[in-house]
Amino acid sequence: MSTSSRPRRSGRTGRSAGYRIRTATTATALAAALLTAAVPAGADTPTAAPKSPTAAQNLAVDLAAPEGPVLHGANGSLYGLSDDGVPTDAALAPLKISTVSQKPEGGAQHPNGDAVTVSKSFFRNGGGDVLVMMQDIYAKWPYEDLGIDDYLTKVDKVVRDIADAPGSEHFVYVPFNEPDQIWYKLGVADQATYEKNRDRFFRDWKTVHDRIRAIDPDARIAGPNESSYHSRLMGDFLTWAKKEKVLPEVTTWHELGPDSLRDFQSHYDDYRALEKRAGITPRPVNIDEYANRRDLSVPGQLVQWVSMFERNKVYADQAYWDAAGNLSGSVAQSSIPNGAWWFFRWYATMSGRTVKVTPPTANAVDTLQGLASYDTAKRQAQVLLGGAAGDADVTIGHVDPKVFGRQVTATVSEAAWSGYEGAHAAPRTLARTKLTVGRDGSVTVPLTTMDRMSAYRIVLTPAGSGAPRPVRAPWHAAYEAEDAAITAGTVYTQGTVSDANGYAASGTKDVGSLNQDTSKVAFTVDVPRSGDYDLGVLYGNHSGGPATQRLTVDGGAARTVTYPSTENWTYRGLENTTLRLSAGRHEIALVHDTAEVTLDRIDLTAATKPSAAYEATLADTTGSPSYDYRSASGTGTGALVLDGRDGAVFDVYAPREGYYTVAPRATGGPLKLTAHGATTATSQRLFLTAGNNRVTATPAGPAPVRLSSLDVTGTGDDTAGVSAYEAESGALSGTAKSESGAHASGGAYVGWLGNGASNTATLTVRAPSAGRYLMAVRYANNERRDNGHAYNTDIVSRGADITIGQGKPRRVMFKNTWSWDDYWTLAVPVDLAKGANTVTFANPGAYAPNLDRIDLAPVIG
Question: What is the separation of C-alpha 337 from the centre of its chain, rounded to a whole number of angstroms?
Answer without folding.
Answer: 6
